[in-house]
């Protein structure tokens, strides 16, 4: 309703300054699609139309809880109303889940309803997500979930069966394959090196495929980035698995990619080698490179990823790990006391901030609350007043592993889709 | 291509077999040529010379076939195919690089053997043999047929390599499938056609046409999805009806 009033006001304002019929029509179209977005469930994301096009703005949820489009009068003259209306149409479908996965001007990978089948076998189905520039995006899932197939699809090695995608702002289509491959790099689980050639020879070969004139300086930079300069002349066959993995990473850095796909980069590596790879990934992110990381290792994802998607043929969820925790698990406070409480039911039930309570395996108490910061002092005071010897009181923490198992654990174990 | 040559250099067995195999192939007929005296009937001399020179043409057929048969499936086996195909390299560049890496050394080996043989014959064999060998038609045939036959073998080997799941099968099939191209030079060697320079050129043109056809077919067969997963994208789309 607020939007409708705003749009009506905008129409009035525009009419008052004698705008063209096309511009007035544009505002009407905007109003229509906003109403449509509202009817679809609304969003807590603010979508802002600017000279750069529509942008999703990270602002606190609006009171109205619906999408709002601000259309500065200046852009009406700068862009065709039809273009803006079409942009809104293309974004309207995203309004419902804009809080988690909106297409923004920062999106470097946009996947919409993508499906890949190999014969009758479905690798992944109806997958939709976006990856933003400069983030480490974790792609998690059990064996056979379709993670590698997704990487191969987005890196133009295999063609999708249906759906659309954009990689590095280029539509995933055969006419863009070469251009997309110029902007991306892929490091497969097996580094894929010519073992009879030296580290430098391997890198020189791949630099040659890109046709670089400054190949040697790129090789030097890549080797320095992975701390392998001292092993440049060694045959790859003589290197440990961890070092080969680093050579693979160096190769992936040769073309200064916008997006780097890392498929299980630490599989089979010892903790020290894994840590080195982690540090390299962090360094890449710091340089503004977008990292698409598929992994089984949830600790790795939790440590490195800004956002994760969990796939088990279909996409189970996508978002920031903290948001997923909050979305999937109620907020809780864990209370540990020196001795069991005499009447926990009476104590906890009397607190307005505690929705429910239960005992955990260690004899502690798990209290479900809506606001941890508000509830914690109240609970502490009540426990002390009740004469309890409080050992600890802490916010309940759910690991990514719990989120993962909640979403795919049972199905993964049963080998279901 | 430089990478391929670096790998050959590091794996000396490839070079040894490149040299040894033709040596074994040609040793017996060459010895026979040297044993022919000036009193031998002309038909015997012509036949023996034709057989020997035909066997020399087996070199550019058999050697590149085995190398080309390894070219794609070998990359897949050592896990380098996927990183390779995610670079901006086009399929034509990929195929051309692979084919030249197989063609150039084997044609080189074939030419070296031919030159050594004809010089040795000139210096050590009987004059009737030397006269029979030192004919423009044979020189032209070797010069033209060696690269054209090698190219055919490479395309056949590459096609089989791209579709095979096992290196050994690919190499055996590649060698077998490349042999039919020897039919044209065989007809010339058996003197079904009189071995003249004109006949050599005509056969070379025929081989060139076959090579171009083979290149086009192999190029169309080159499907990244099939190479990576063993299944064709086109087939998959047809199967799921999308």
Structure description:
The complex is a heterodimer of chains A (417) and B (242). With 417 residues, chain A is α/β, with parallel strands linked by helices. In chain A, the strands form four sheets. A six-stranded mixed β-sheet of chain A has the order 9-10-11-6-12-13, sandwiched between helices. Chain A has a four-stranded antiparallel β-sheet with strand order 5-4-7-8, with helices on one face. A four-stranded antiparallel β-sheet of chain A has the order 15-16-14-17. In chain A, 40% of the residues are buried. Chain A is 41% helix and 24% strand. Chain A folds into three domains: 2-101, no CATH class; 107-325, P-loop containing nucleotide triphosphate hydrolases (Rossmann fold), CATH 3.40.50.300; 330-397, Alpha-Beta Plaits, CATH 3.30.70.100. Chain A has 16 helices and 17 strands. In chain A, helix 1 (2-16) runs antiparallel to helix 2 (21-39), helix 2 runs parallel beside helix 4 (81-92) and helix 8 packs across helix 9 (215-225). The relative contact order of chain B is 0.14. Chain B has 242 residues and is mainly α. Chain B starts with a helix and ends with a helix. Chain B is elongated and about 65 Å long.
Q: Helices and strands of chain A: which structural class?
A: alpha/beta
Please, what is the CATH homologous superfamily of the largest domain in chain A? Answer: P-loop containing nucleotide triphosphate hydrolases
Question: How would you sum up the major sheet of chain A?
Answer: 6 strands, mixed
Structural domains of chain B: how many: 1
Structural Rg of chain A:
26 Å
Shape type of chain B: elongated
Question: Please, how many helices of chain B?
Answer: 12
- Write out the strand line-up for the largest beta sheet of chain A, numbering strands in chain order: 9-10-11-6-12-13
- Distance, first to last CA of chain A: 42 Å
Relative helix content of chain B: over 70%
| Chain pair with largest interface | A-B, 39 and 30 residues
Q: How much strand content do the residues of chain B show?
A: under 5%
Number of domains of chain A: 3
- CATH class label of the largest domain in chain A: Alpha Beta
Shape of chain A: elongated
What's the total number of strands of chain B? 0
CATH architecture of the largest domain in chain A: 3-Layer(aba) Sandwich
Biggest beta sheet attributes of chain B: none
* Strand-pairing-aware structural class of chain B: mainly alpha
Instruction: Write down the overall mean pLDDT of chain A.
Output: 77
């Amino acid at each position: 309703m607020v939007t409708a009033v705003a749009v009506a006001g905008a129409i009035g304002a525009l009419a008052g300054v004698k705008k063209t019929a096309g511009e007035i029509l544009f505002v009407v179209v905007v109003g229509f699609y906003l109403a449509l977005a509202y009817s679809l469930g609304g969003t807590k994301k603010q979508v802002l139309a600017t000279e750069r096009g529509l942008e999703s703005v990270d602002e606190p949820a609006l009171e109205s809880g619906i999408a709002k489009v601000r259309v500065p009068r200046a852009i009406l003259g700068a862009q065709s109303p039809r273009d803006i209306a079409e942009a809104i149409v293309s974004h309207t479908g995203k309004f419902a889940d804009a809080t988690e996965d909106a297409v923004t001007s920062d999106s470097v990978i946009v996947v919409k309803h993508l499906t890949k089948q190999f014969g009758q076998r479905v690798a992944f189905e109806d997958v939709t997500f976006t990856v933003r520039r400069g983030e480490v995006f974790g792609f998690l899932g059990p064996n056979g979930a379709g993670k590698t197939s997704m990487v191969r699809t987005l890196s133009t090695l295999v063609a999708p069966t249906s759906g659309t995608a954009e990689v590095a702002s280029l539509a995933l289509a055969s006419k863009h394959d070469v251009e997309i491959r110029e902007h991306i790099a892929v490091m497969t689980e097996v580094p894929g090196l010519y073992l009879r050639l030296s580290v430098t020879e391997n890198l020189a070969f791949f630099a040659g495929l890109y046709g670089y004139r400054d190949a040697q300086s790129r090789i030097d930079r890549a080797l320095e980035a992975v701390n392998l300069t001292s092993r440049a002349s060694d045959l790859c066959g003589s290197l440990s698995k961890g070092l080969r993995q680093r050579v693979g990473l160096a190769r992936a850095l040769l073309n200064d990619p916008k997006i780097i796909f890392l498929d299980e980069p630490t599989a089979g590596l010892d903790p020290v080698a894994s840590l080195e790879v982690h540090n390299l990934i962090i360094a890449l992110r710091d340089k503004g490179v977008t990292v698409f990381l598929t992994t089984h290792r949830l600790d790795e994802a939790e440590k490195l990823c800004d956002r994760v998607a969990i796939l088990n043929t279909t996409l189970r969820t996508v978002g920031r790990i903290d948001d997923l925790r909050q979305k999937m698990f109620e907020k809780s406070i864990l209370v540990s006391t020196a001795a069991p409480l005499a009447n926990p039911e009476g104590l906890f039930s009397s607190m307005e901030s505690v929705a429910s309570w239960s005992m955990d395996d260690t004899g502690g108490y798990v209290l479900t609350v809506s606001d941890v910061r508000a509830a914690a002092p109240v609970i502490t005071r009540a426990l002390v007043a009740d004469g309890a010897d409080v050992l600890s009181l802490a916010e309940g923490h759910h690991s990514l592993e719990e989120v993962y198992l909640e979403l795919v654990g049972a199905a993964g174990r049963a080998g279901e889709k | 291509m430089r990478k391929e040559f670096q790998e050959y250099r590091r794996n000396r067995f490839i070079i040894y077999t490149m040299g040894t195999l033709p040596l074994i192939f040609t040793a017996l007929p060459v010895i026979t040529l040297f044993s022919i005296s000036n009193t031998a009937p002309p038909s015997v001399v012509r036949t023996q010379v034709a057989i020997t020179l035909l066997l020399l043409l087996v070199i550019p057929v058999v050697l590149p076939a085995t190398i080309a048969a390894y070219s794609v499936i070998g990359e897949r086996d050592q896990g380098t195919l996927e990183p390779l195909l995610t670079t901006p390299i086009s399929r034509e560049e990929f195929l051309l690089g692979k084919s030249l890496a197989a063609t150039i050394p084997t044609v080189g080996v074939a030419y070296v053997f031919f030159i050594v043989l004809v010089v040795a014959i000139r210096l050590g064999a009987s004059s009737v043999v030397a006269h029979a060998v030192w004919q423009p038609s044979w020189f032209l045939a070797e010069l033209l047929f060696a690269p054209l036959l090698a190219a055919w073998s490479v395309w056949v080997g590459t096609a089989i390599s791209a579709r095979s799941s096992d290196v050994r099968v690919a190499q055996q099939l590649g060698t077998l499938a490349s042999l039919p191209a020897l039919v044209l030079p065989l007809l010339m060697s058996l003197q079904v056609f009189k071995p003249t320079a004109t006949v050599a050129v005509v056969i070379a043109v025929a081989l060139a046409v076959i090579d171009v056809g083979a290149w086009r077919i192999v190029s169309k067969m080159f499907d990244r999805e099939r190479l990576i997963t063993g299944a064709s994208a086109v087939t998959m789309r047809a199967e799921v009806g999308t």
